[in-house]
Specification:
The complex is a heterodimer. Chain A is an alpha/beta fold. Chain A contains 6 helices and 13 strands. A 9-stranded mixed beta sheet of chain A has the order 9-8-7-10-6-1-4-5-11, sandwiched between helices. Chain A has a two-stranded antiparallel sheet with strand order 2-3. The chains are: A alpha/beta, B alpha/beta. Chains A and B meet through helix 3, helix 4, strand 7, strand 8 and strand 9 of A and helix 3, helix 4, strand 5, strand 7 and strand 8 of B. The structure holds flavin-adenine dinucleotide (FAD).
């Protein structure tokens, strides 16, 4: 079995992102970039499936700028067998990314595609589901458990009301939630080994996909800020304020 | 400008977020159709008929849609799509799961999680865990949108008997099946629609200690939530999680107990009207967004608060 793990280079989750002074976009100058946390969980799951003897190959793929090779090397150090960069200078929308990945799926024919449920930059939560639609593959989003058998995959999902379990025919798409696993750290020997693993670079034009943007970003602003509050000295004062000042409790 | 709103329901009742989504639709236009697809949905249909602002209910009552499988529902919505210029769904796990699948089939770039409607094609939405707000213009001829409930007040139930039109089921995709569901049962209000929410974090130390919050919640008629750390540690189930990747809440009163105030948590609650923080660390970032902060050990403060309510 072959597993494809699409992943994304994003601003590290510890960075507090701000708009550019002219409000045309977010300011990404000199900020730390990482693998999107949900994509790390996706890769970890794929590597564990392989380690359990249930898959032969794990392929990491990203669609992005040349710098994204860094994140693919990380993926190789974390256990991916090879990596593919579909290189583009433009920032693609989820639909375009899903179209590009679907082309690669047609070539690679993986049995399972595992991706993060959302990237923490755009917070869109779209790519996995869109890929499912383009390929007519079944999907299980927000996975907290993945169990494989010969022809299907059984996935427990975190939904608003609790947990839901679905059974999907393979090939299938799974998107990961936070509690699916705890990703490992790359060891130094594995980082060294990753330098020798295969990383194929394709130019996006080779794939013949329409990736023209459908939306325009008109501006980026800070959200309205909250006025600074006060520190109360006691529980009595807190109850008094909530009753008589804020009037939110009876 | 005809608008289709996809109703979220459990075959018995409409889910609250549907009412907020209809409210967003009303800001776009007045020709609003609500799709109820499910199995034995008669009680949902009668609720739907009362929703302020809608002109028609489409009903597709078929076993295929009983569990809202995205593979099946997306085929149905795609078969109906040609009559609409907007298709809206709530930005809940239901809508987030379903709408992108429809968008890709219609070759549309969806706009996720909108918090305001600026014009017929321009919307605001939070990005980077709500650190920034983006204004986005859609150039697709059809717009597919998920709506953040907390940004739109729910519509009233004062419409009278909107007409219901049956629609045919689509052929089954037959590639996925429902196995089981474990839904949380609680007598308390739902987290996303409660007027008061009290949440616990890693500082609670154990699931057992959440009874300190439960007892206060019962007195206040509040829902109980949690930070990711509390859910990861197994103190409470996943459906308690508030934040960037959990639930978004905006109650009149949010009480954060033993929660440090990471940006990913703030993303889920900082639009609450009044925020109270109880934390023993006076430098905890949660105090920067709280209206009333109490620097105290929660194991002292909670029993005292409980006794004074
Ligand atoms: C991709 C991603 C997504 C995430 N999504 C979410 C999300 O949706 N929701 C979310 O909440 N987090 C999310 N997080 C996690 C987030 O970054 C924080 O790690 C998390 O919110 C911390 O939870 P906490 O405040 O309970 O724990 P901590 O940060 O450990 O804070 C515990 C607090 O309790 C206080 N405390 C301890 N003991 C006591 C006591 N006896 N009395 C009073 N106070 C006490 C401490 O002073 C401290 O401030 C996400 C992270 C990532 C990377």
């Amino acid at each position: 079995m072959k597993i494809l793990v699409p992943l994304k280079r994003v601003v590290d989750y510890n960075v507090k992102v701000r708009p550019l002074p002219d409000n045309t976009n977010v300011d990404l100058n000199n900020v730390k970039m990482s693998v999107n946390p949900f994509c790390e969980i996706a890769l970890e799951e794929a590597v564990r499936i392989k380690e359990a003897g249930n898959a032969e190959e794990v392929i990491a793929i990203t669609v992005g700028k040349s710098e994204s090779q860094e994140q693919l090397r990380t993926a190789l150090a974390l256990g991916a067998d090879r990596a593919i960069l579909v290189e583009t200078e433009s920032l693609l929308e989820p639909l375009a990314i899903a179209k590009v990945i679907s082309k690669v799926v047609e070539e690679e024919k993986p049995d399972l595609i595992i991706l993060g449920k959302q990237a923490i930059d755009g917070d869109n939560n779209q790519t996995g589901q869109m890929l499912g639609a383009l390929l007519d593959y079944p999907q299980a989003t927000n996975a907290s458990e993945v169990i494989l058998d010969d022809s299907s995959v059984t996935v427990t999902r975190e939904i608003d009301g609790g947990l839901q379990t679905l059974k999907l025919n393979k090939p299938a798409i799974v998107t990961t939630d936070l509690r699916l696993n705890e990703p490992r750290y790359a060891s130094l020997p594995n980082i060294m080994k990753a330098k020798k693993k295969e990383l194929t670079i394709k130019n996006i034009s080779e794939l013949g996909v329409d990736v023209e943007p459908r939306t325009e970003l008109l501006s980026v602003e800070l959200p309205p800020s909250r006025d600074a509050g006060i520190i109360v000295e006691s529980v009595d004062e807190l109850v008094d304020k909530l009753k008589n000042e804020a009037k939110v409790i009876g | 400008m005809s608008i289709l709103v996809i109703a979220e329901h459990d075959n018995v009742n409409l889910k609250g977020a549907t009412l907020n989504t209809v409210a967003a639709a009303k800001e776009i236009g007045s020709d609003i159709t609500l799709l109820v697809a499910g199995s034995d949905t008669s009680s949902v249909i009668s609720e739907a008929q009362q929703l302020n602002g809608i002109t028609k209910v489409l009903s597709c009552d078929n076993d295929l849609y009983k569990n809202s499988l995205a593979e099946e529902l997306s085929n149905l919505v795609v078969s109906l799509a040609s009559s609409f210029s907007y298709i809206l769904a709530p930005a809940t796990t239901f809508g987030k799961n379903l709408l992108p699948r429809i968008s890709a089939k219609l070759d549309v770039q969806q706009i996720s999680d909108i918090i305001s409607i600026e014009s017929e094609d321009t919307f605001k939405r939070p990005i980077y865990a709500g650190s920034c707000i983006a204004t986005v213009k859609s150039n697709d001829t059809v717009k597919l949108i998920t709506v953040r409930s907390t940004a739109f007040d729910p519509v009233a139930n004062d419409n009278s008997d909107v007409p219901v039109e049956p629609v045919d089921a689509s052929t089954s995709a037959n590639i996925s099946e429902f196995v089981s569901e474990e839904l949380a049962k609680s007598d308390r209000p739902e987290l996303t629609s409660a007027n008061i929410v009290i949440s616990g974090g890693r500082g609670m130390q154990s699931g057992d200690n959440f009874h300190l919050l439960d007892s206060i919640a019962d007195k206040l008629g509040a829902a109980v939530g949690a930070s990711r750390a509390a859910v990861d540690a197994g103190f409470v189930p996943n459906d308690y999680q508030v934040g960037q990747t959990g639930k978004i809440v905006a109650p009149d009163l949010y009480i954060a107990v033993g929660i440090s105030g990471a940006i990913q948590h703030l993303a889920g609650m900082k639009d609450s009207k009044v925020i109270v923080a109880i934390n023993k660390d006076e430098d905890a970032p949660i105090f920067q967004v709280s209206d009333y902060g109490l620097v105290s050990d929660l194991f002292d403060a909670l029993p005292e608060l409980d006794s004074k309510l």
